[in-house]
Amino acid sequence: MGDDSYGVNKNTIDQISQELVSVKSLGIQLAVVIGGGNIFRGVAPAASGMDRATADYMGMLATVMNALALQDALKRAGCQARVVSALNLEQVAEPYIRGKSIRYLEQGQIVIFGAGTGNPFFTTDTAAALRGMEMNVDLVVKATKVDGIYSDDPVKNPSAERFLDITFDEAIRRNLRVMDATAFTLCRDQNLPICVLSILEKDSLKRLMLGEKRGTLVHG
Prior knowledge:
By secondary structure, the chain is α/β, with parallel strands linked by helices. It folds into two domains: 1-137, Acetylglutamate kinase-like (Carbamate kinase, 3-Layer(aba) Sandwich), CATH 3.40.1160.10; 138-220, Carbamate kinase (3-Layer(aba) Sandwich). It is 42% helix and 16% strand. The protein contains eight helices and ten strands.
């Protein structure tokens, strides 16, 4: 969305694609789960009072639009990417099949997962945790607007403490909102570490992959 009120900002999508390409150049396999808030925000007033499942399906379709935009940006950057969808939209994206997606990763392609889990009432966080486990990933990275997990809202409380790393149990004890409860529980039960970092900070993902301390690591 960038500085726009909603929609896809070209500079932002290009920046994200360049970041992903730079990480892939390190020989790292990348799977991306993408949200749809930037598009759904534009129709959110009309969705007020709408049936929750219907609104969630609209949000899933928005994630597919973002996935296609990211795929196009990656191709322009010289990188092969596949969009797979949890909903049947075969004219624009192939259906999600676990074995095929793993094979695409092994072939060096970036796999972009659209339409969340394909079910209403589940968030993008849950889709990321679920696909992460299905793809046997080493790390789930939540790339967001903040540079880690804080003890309090850093905007409202300038003295809030940022954690460099924290255990799952400590995050629960402190009632820190890392991801939604379902996603967090999935990662904790499978001992799948989560790193929360800023997507707005240049090269943050690449620097993390090179071993630098970036954002906050949540681990077992």
